[in-house]
Amino acid sequence: MDQVTVGDAVREVLPSQRDAEFVLMSLRPDDTLAIALRKLQGLKISGAPVLEDHSARSLRSARMVDLMDLALAIVESAGRPEVFNTPVRLIAGSAKEGGAAGLPFIYNDAPFVEGVRALKQSRARRLLVLDQATDAPLALLSQSSVVSWALRHIKHLPADLMAKPVSQLECGSRVVTVKRDEPMPDALRRFVGEDKSGVAVVDDRGRVVANLSLADLRCLTPENAAELLRLNVGAFLSATQELPKDPVTCRPSATLTEALHLLHSHRVYVTDEQGLPVGVFSTTDAVANLCP
């Protein structure tokens, strides 16, 4: 990857992205849970940094708050109306992204490969991109952006790496499953306990029949969240998806190139001949394998 990205700076990669996550939207510490839900839904993104202002001091203590944090706060309050008035500064963010050390960040003039390495080493889902001259936040560089970049440059990447079957790749992600009749509150707690952004929904035989991810929570509003989060997983997906979405799957023999093309859903479930999950290839795994 070094030979391809040596001339690419982070700032040269970001403008080509069309994903809404690359439009930096931050939350204020005093924004309420209701305001945060509306902001995230409006941009169709799953999380945002909480910033007092755009100063370097604020960035050092910033953290991410995502839809999982907001949904879990609603669940733990049993959906009481007053929870929607809770300031986001009181809602715990992801343990991996932010906190005392602040958000992982990179400067816009840094080589793109450094951003990929930072994502791999921190296992964060996104980095804050700062202006080299002013320290002002410009955008978010996510794992998905690395996948998009790799797909645009795939012919320049090592052929032997891209031809490797998924079964031989470095995959640290473990399959976490939930049943369709499992209550959403229990499923959300599983997300947090396993530190996942998506889980496989399986039938009574253990076959993957759907995917429940952070993106599925983008439908939540202050008006519908409490009711939707009382449903079981199957009913939640039926109520929030206009058309049923089949899970994205591949066989263990699929190549890295094939797996990358399937990663539009952020994870690909690796299944055997019976449809049983034997592994999962996520955007985290993609970054780990693309980075030297």
Detailed description of the structure:
- With 292 residues, the protein is α/β, with parallel strands linked by helices.
- It has two domains: 150 residues, CBS-domain (Roll), CATH 3.10.580.10; 125 residues, CBS-domain, CATH 3.10.580.10.
- Helices cover 33% and strands 17% of the residues.
- It is built from 13 helices and eleven strands.
- The chain has a three-stranded mixed sheet.
- The longest helix has 11 residues.
- The radius of gyration is 19 Å and the shape is flat.
- The chain starts with a helix and ends with a helix.
- The relative contact order is 0.16.
Number of distinct beta strands: 11
If you compute it from the alpha carbons, what radius of gyration comes out, rounded to the nearest whole angstrom? 19 Å
The CATH superfamily of the largest domain turns out to be CBS-domain
Query: Strand sequence of the main sheet, in spatial order?
Result: 3-4-5
CATH class of the largest domain: Alpha Beta
Order of helices and strands: HHHEHEHEHEEHHEHEEHHEHEEH
Based on secondary structure, the structural category is alpha/beta
The helix tally amounts to 13
CATH fold category name of the largest domain: CBS-domain
The proportion of residues in beta strands is 15-25%
Major sheet: 3 strands, mixed
Distance between the termini: 7 Å
Helix proportion: 25-40%
- Give the overall form: flat
Average pLDDT confidence is 84
CATH architecture of the largest domain: Roll
Oligomerization status of the protein chains = single chain
How many domain regions?
A: 2
